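Dig into these lines:

——
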Amino acid sequence: MLPRALLLVFSGLSVCLAQPQYQFLSLTGSDVFRVASATRLSQSGSAIGQVDGDGKAAVFSRELGTIKPTYAARIKDINAAGDIIGVTNQQKPFLSQPPYDTYLDLSPVSGSDNGTPEAMNDRGDIVGEPCYANGWFPGLNITILAAINNAGQVIGAVPVFPGYQYFLYTPGKGAVPLPAPPNTMNNNGDLLFGAPGAQYIQNSSGMIPLPSCCAWTGINDFDEAVGSVLGANPQDPLSPRPVFYSVPTGLIDLTTRFQNTSGIAYPLPVGINNRGEILLEYSWFPAGFAIPAVGIGLLTPVSGAR
């Protein structure tokens, strides 16, 4: 057993001089991809995702560019050192380090040839399926381990008819039930919850409502959030728009803070790290191409940096 309105409109976006300007950096460079998506951003600014029509697993790095490890079917997480975890083409769990030309088979660690590592923190602790650390959770019939932060806190789930009960496990304190599966967790154990229009951050002090105009995709350890405006007309060239929110700054339209973004369209924030770097998916028009390509990039603060 487990123990134990804010409404803002886009026209009223806050303009805060303390919020930094951003420089745009493409992590995919001039590579032309018809498909590209990003899922995780590390504290060092590297990211993971997929490219190409077959959804090839990829690492996006400002030092290495776009790397598609030949052995990787899926990449699940990346930490500040650039270490990645995932599943090989033979469905074996793996760990790899830059430049990602070799990998360590984690099957002996997981006790299963077809285990799936789901998340890793900056210390290299890993959780996944089957449970990589079931000694932490005595008496719990754990079905899902989804996230682990640098404090060793874990998001997991146990089966409770007709679905699952999610929980936050904190070392030395035990497990606390959660009202729903969280979208993401930061290193303080703060959680991003909710569907678009009803999202909030839960921290140790209470709830931080997020503006209902937007779909929020990521938070960092400062409870700064990034997301996109929910445009009424998807064909509107100004929709969706990337936005930033924090309690000190209010809601900010990031399109007013970009530099060197000529030719970049439809920037969609995926996450934000503690350096204030914002991971983006975007579209662009390569010379000689009639249809847009897609890429992965960063917005990096050029003033007011941490």
